[in-house]
Structures are given as structure tokens and as C-alpha cells.
Design brief:
483 residues; five-stranded antiparallel beta sheet; alpha+beta; 24% helix; disordered N terminus; flat
Length: 483
């Protein structure tokens, strides 16, 4: 309600008496302030539902909330912070400057906490004319990453290295010495350190979503499906971080080697690991038969679990017992550096049997058994891709066949649940894609290619034969005899 409308309404009710008008004006302002005071509290509680604790006394209301940063460039291991909001009685008219917002997270150092609280206090004093709690919380969310950059314990190895290179301001006097130590440690990398850049072949998780206390993922044991560059024979290799495994091809005897580098997999950079290959190329990563570790940001402990694409994978932390939920759409293999050929062997001109998302599968996903099926199936028994069940039995005769649960489209090479039509490119992948029947107009519409068993084959055709019975018997025959 505007002040002019409020004054005119009061004057109309109480007349021109200045004493009565001032008393009524004060009572009306108190009622409006009380309504806004309660409204702000309800809005904060609704905004942080389940993460807000409210306590009220005579002086005002104290709200303890847990804020999860929404900055898309957030690259710190600190995934949520604790804030205290104090809203005094009579807010906002009586004591606007007394409304305070403070960072109270004990994981942040006291010096950084003082800098953040002083900046919040200055912003509150600058906004005392248009005071509201929610815009101020949005300001804290937008600027929190800038304040916490100096806390090196919250950095991943990659973000810490970028931070110390000078892309973000560094004010510590000992930064040069720490940068030299960091550089020397990266030159002698061990299996316990994360890779700072992608190399070889990268394994990524598409549309990764982390829930609960999971901060990130790192590989523990990954089952890789590799393919020989010389004879295109596929083989399985189980590799851990920092381990190099060598095998010989069962068909041509070429030496195949694989070296796995681990990375911290986050929703912003969903690269799980990088693989350096020699004599072979990476065909697929069988994550349902692998072990991946999830890092808990409450206790910093890791929990091993298996990941299945397209579903919600849940587990519990072994130390604090809190729930961890991870989901992703599918895996994506990106070749950064092409693999080198096996020593002593000439690489064949034929390209390896692999696929790239966004491009058609080799031979559109067909095989010698089924020429109308434009897709590959991922079978549950071995989590490997084959065009059909007969191809599976030919290449893996000892594997017990189980029904496939997912497929890869032959038009765009995107993995998805089994259906007759791709949900990405909307192309037909089943037998109806090359049908030889009419099927209500959705199948074959060319009468030359249509099956002879279809009733539409010769419909309305000029070459269709007609009965000559009327010329032998009937009215025409009688007329001719009468003549």
C-alpha cells in the first residue's frame, strides 16, 4: 500500500485531527512491518526447505540455513556452506540495519570468514533503503566463489594449479615456493594423484548428476573393451589407476598395452579417466562390471560402487552412513590422441569397429544375420555391444545369453533404452525401417518393392488383369447372338 493512499484512507476515517491521524498512521505502519517480517521468514524457510532451522526470541528470529552454491563455474570441493540470518522484530521499518547475514562454516578459516562477513555487512548497509533478505542471499551465492578462492584446501589439483598460475588473484607471499613444489610433484606423478589434463582416450559420463553427500567420482577398477588395430579382435582388460597392463592378441599375437590415468569426475567436468593405448583402440568401457569410488564431502572417505547407465545408483558411505545417489545417461569415448600401432606390426588400412556419437554406426548397425535392424544391443550378461544375439554367440560362445536392456541407434550412435524409434534423431531402427508391406501407409509405398503377399501390391494398377467372363456369357454375349 502506498503512503499517499494510506494517508488519504486514514484522513477519511478519522477526519483532519492531526493527533488521531498520526496514531492511526503509526499503527498501520506497525501492521505492515509485522506482515513483511513474517513474510520474509516464511519465504526463507520455503526457499531452504529441509535445510533451515528457525529459533525465535523477544529480539527477533534467527535462521540457520545450509546454502548449496549454484554457480556453474564452481570448482571447489566445498559443496555447501552454513549461514546465519538474524531478522529483528519490527523489520524492516524499525531496525533495517540490524538485519544481519553471517557465514558460520567452521571448515572456512577465520581470516576468510571475517573478510566475507565484512563484505556482506557493507552490502547490507548499501541496501538499507531497499532491504530484502532474498536478494541479499542471491548476492552471497554469486560472490561466494570469489571469496573462497584463497582457501586452497577446497581446491582440486587442477583448479589449484590454475589458481596459482595467476588467472585468479593470489595474495599469499609464499605462493611462488608452493607453486614450485606443486610443479615438482606433477613432474613425478604417482597413482594417488589426479591427472590435470586429458590425454589419450577420455571416458566421460554424459549428464552426470550427484545427489546426497557425493562430491565426485574417481576410478578404482575399470573393465575396458579394447580392439586390436591389426586384426580387429576384441578383448577385455581390467585396469586400475596408474597401472599398465599388457596382453597379447589371441588371433594375431600383437602386443596390446593400456595405461589408466584417473581424474576427479565432477558434474562440471565429467571425465572419469583417461587411457593411453598402444596396439589397440578403446571400443567401450563396461562400467556395470567395474568399480568406481565416490568421495564423501562430509567425511572425505571413498566408497566403492558399480554404475549402470540410465538408472539411479544408490549406496551409503562406509564411514558416516549417509546416502549417495549417482545417475548418468551413458558413457562417451573421446579420442584426444590416436593410439600408436603395435611394435613390429603394420597397421591395416581398415578402420577399427568403433562409433562416434552423432555419426552413423558402421554399416548403419546391420549385420550378416539381420539386414533390417539398424542398431546395436547392449546385453546384460557381458555389458558388451553386438548387432544381434547370433553375433553375441559367435564371438562369446561361453557367455550365457541374457536379454538386452539398452541399444545404440544406428543413425546417430546414441545409447538409450530399447525402442523402435530413436528418441534423439527420431529415426526408425527396427524392422519397420525397411518394411516390404503397406502397414497403413507407414511402411513400403513403392509397389515395385512391395511384397507379393501384400494386398496393396497390384491395387489400382494398369497391368492388373480383368475377368473376360462377360464376353462368353451374360448380356454382351446375348446381344451378339441376337445380332
Amino acid at each position: 500500500v502506498g503512503s499517499a493512499d494510506l494517508s488519504s484512507g486514514i484522513n477519511a476515517e478519522y477526519g483532519d485531527s492531526p493527533c488521531l491521524s498520526s496514531v492511526a498512521m503509526a499503527s498501520s505502519w506497525e501492521a505492515a512491518s509485522s506482515d513483511q517480517y513474517l513474510t520474509e521468514i516464511r519465504q526463507v524457510e520455503r526457499l531452504y526447505r529441509g535445510k533451515c532451522h528457525t529459533s525465535t526470541n523477544e529480539s527477533g528470529t534467527l535462521l540457520k540455513i545450509i546454502m548449496k552454491p549454484t554457480d556453474p563455474e564452481w570448482n571447489l570441493t566445498l559443496m555447501q556452506v552454513s549461514l546465519e540470518i538474524f531478522i529483528p522484530v519490527g523489520y524492516p521499518a524499525a531496525a533495517a540495519n540490524c538485519c544481519t547475514i553471517q557465514l558460520t562454516d567452521k571448515r572456512v578459516s577465520q581470516s576468510t570468514m571475517d573478510i566475507i562477513n565484512n563484505a556482506i555487512a557493507e552490502e547490507l548497509s548499501a541496501r538499507h533503503n531497499t532491504m530484502s533478505v532474498r536478494p541479499m542471499l542471491r548476492w552471497v551465492d554469486r560472490n561466494l566463489l570469489q571469496f573462497l578462492q584463497r582457501e586452497t584446501q577446497f581446491h582440486t589439483p587442477l583448479s589449484l594449479r590454475v589458481y596459482k598460475k595467476g588467472e585468479i588473484e593470489w595474495t599469499d607471499s609464499s605462493s611462488e615456493e608452493e607453486e614450485e613444489d606443486l610443479q615438482s610433484s606433477y613432474n613425478g606423478r604417482t597413482s594417488d594423484e589426479f591427472l590435470d589434463k586429458e590425454l589419450g582416450t577420455s571416458i566421460r559420463l554424459v549428464e552426470l548428476d550427484l545427489h546426497g553427500t557425493s562430491h565426485g567420482l574417481m576410478p578404482h577398477q575399470i573393465l575396458l573393451l579394447v580392439q586390436c588395430l591389426r586384426c580387429k579382435t576384441q578383448a577385455e582388460m581390467t585396469v586400475g589407476p596408474g597401472q599398465e597392463k599388457k596382453i597379447d592378441c589371441v588371433r594375431c599375437g600383437s602386443h596390446l598395452s593400456c595405461l589408466l590415468h584417473k581424474k576427479l569426475c565432477l558434474p562440471s567436468s565429467a571425465c572419469l579417466c583417461c587411457v593411453e593405448m598402444a596396439g589397440a583402440t578403446l571400443a567401450d568401457a563396461l562400467l556395470p562390471r567395474s568399480q568406481v569410488s565416490s568421495i564423501c564431502f562430509d567425511c572425505s572417505d571413498s566408497t566403492n560402487l558399480t554404475l549402470t547407465p540410465g538408472t539411479r545408483n544408490s549406496s551409503w558411505c562406509g564411514s558416516c552412513g549417509k546416502k549417495i545417489t549417482i545417475s548418468f545417461l551413458c558413457t562417451k569415448i573421446v579420442v584426444i590422441n590416436p593410439p600408436c600401432a603395435a611394435p613390429g606390426k603394420n597397421r591395416l588400412k581398415k578402420q577399427p569397429r568403433e562409433f562416434v556419437q552423432g555419426q552413423p554406426l558402421p554399416e548403419r548397425g546391420t549385420c550378416k544375420h539381420y539386414k533390417k535392424s539398424l542398431r546395436w544391443f547392449r546385453f546384460k550378461c557381458c555389458q558388451r555391444l553386438f548387432p544381434c544375439d547370433r553375433c553375441h554367440d559367435e564371438q562369446l560362445p561361453d557367455c550365457p545369453l541374457e536379454m538386452a536392456g539398452r541399444m545404440v541407434c544406428g543413425h546417430c550412435a546414441y545409447e538409450q533404452p530399447i525402442s523402435m524409434q530413436c528418441k534423439y534423431c527420431h529415426g526408425e531402427v527396427g524392422a519397420s525401417a525397411r518394411s516390404s508391406h503397406w502397414e497403413g501407409g507407414k511402411g513400403c509405398r513403392n509397389q515395385l518393392r512391395m511384397s507379393n503377399n501384400d494386398s496393396r501390391k497390384h491395387k489400382n494398377s494398369k497391368l492388373k488383369t480383368h475377368s473376360q467372363k462377360e464376353k462368353r456369357v451374360g448380356q454382351k454375349k446375348r446381344k451378339e447372338e441376337d445380332k
